[in-house]
Amino acid sequence: MRRADYPAVGGYDPAAGDAEVAALAMKVLKARKGDAHGYAAMLISHCKDAAELPATIRGILETIHKALSAVPEDIALPPSDDLKDLFG
User: Which residue among 12, 50, 53, 82 sits deepest, i.e. has the most Cβ atoms within 10 Å of its Cβ?
Assistant: First the structure.
């Protein structure tokens, strides 16, 4: 069953090889880039682990994760007991 918003880039053939499936996936993602159809999220949700993600998507997600996981030095420091620090 094909989604109503599926782009006109060709359909999935179960007999297709890995290279053909990857090429079709790229065509679909490119055709729906920037649209709110959720194709990239759907692709990611079907991956069993990070090794199944395309390298570009994995790299982008790892960069975002590192940026959001980082703790700035001033937040990581214990709070000061000196009130001068509060009022400058």
Answer: 53
The dihedral built from the CA positions of residue 68, 73, 77 and 82, taken in this order, carries a sign that is negative
Residue 39 burial class via C-beta count within 10 angstroms: exposed 0-12, middle 13-18, buried 19 and up: buried
- Identify whether the C-beta of residue 27 lies closer than 8 Å to the C-beta of residue 10: yes
Residue of higher predicted confidence among 76 and 58: 58
Report which of residues 25 and 80 the model is more confident about: 25
Q: Please, are residues 47 and 53 in contact by the beta-carbon 8 Å criterion? A: yes
Judge contact between 8 and 2, C-beta under 8 A.
no
Asked if residue 32 lies in contact with residue 7, where contact means CB atoms within 8 angstroms, the answer is yes
* C-alpha dihedral, 53 to 55 to 60 to 62, nearest 10°: 70
pTM for the whole thing?
A: 0.56
